[in-house]
Amino acid sequence: MANNTASQTETPVFYLKEEHHPETGTMLGFWIYLMSDCLIFAILFATHGVLGRNYAAGPSPADLFDLELVAINTSMLLFSSITYGFAMLQMEKGKIAGTQLWLAITGLFGIAFVGLELYEFHHLWSIGATPMRSGFLSAFYTLVATHGLHVTFGIIWLVTLMVQVSQRGLIPENKRRLMCLSMFWHFLDVVWIGVFSVVYLLGVLG
């Protein structure tokens, strides 16, 4: 009888207050997302392959692209991947300050990359090389801008994680989120190497 009374007075708990996200489910879902992103960029690369020589009597890549500027921009993204790797090493050591420092440096490199890309777009528009000018420029802007948007969202995600780490530390959930962003960031790095090689180098030298 006493046991029944005690059980009736206990406050029922219908949910867990702590975060509960199965690690395997999160990582699997993120891998599926990355595969879908691979398909998107594969389609954009294929589109550029079809339209990349359709200049419509307009400017060609050799007339438009500044390889030195693009090389500097590429180095910004490559350096950001290296600094993100340093952030992950600091995370594994449990050092919050070191993780935040390298994440901030990664974000600055990402901002520099996006800024140089916007400068290039502004320059091209100022000389009349707009997406409406030819099939080549339509494919170029679509591919490069899609990648740039991904980097922009990656920077927003990075800042969000920095806030979460500052508030809650390197808890398992934040570590898993940082791992997901790491895969996303390195994925964008690989895609950009393809853009630099196919769109810029082959376009100018081919």
Automatic annotation (TrEMBL):
Domain Heme-copper oxidase subunit III family profile: 1-204
GO CC term, one of those recorded: plasma membrane
Any one GO biological process: aerobic electron transport chain
Gene Ontology molecular function terms on file: cytochrome bo3 ubiquinol oxidase activity; cytochrome-c oxidase activity
Keyword Transmembrane listed: yes
Keyword annotations: Cell membrane, Electron transport, Membrane, Oxidoreductase, Transmembrane, Transmembrane helix, Transport
Membrane association type: Multi-pass membrane protein
Chief localization: membrane
Top-level taxon in the UniProt lineage: Bacteria
Subcellular location: Cell membrane
PANTHER family recorded: CYTOCHROME BO(3) UBIQUINOL OXIDASE SUBUNIT 3, CYTOCHROME C OXIDASE SUBUNIT III
Matching NCBIfam families: CyoC
Protein name in the entry: Cytochrome bo(3) ubiquinol oxidase subunit 3
Species per Swiss-Prot/TrEMBL record: Thalassospira povalilytica
Gene symbol of the encoding locus: cyoC
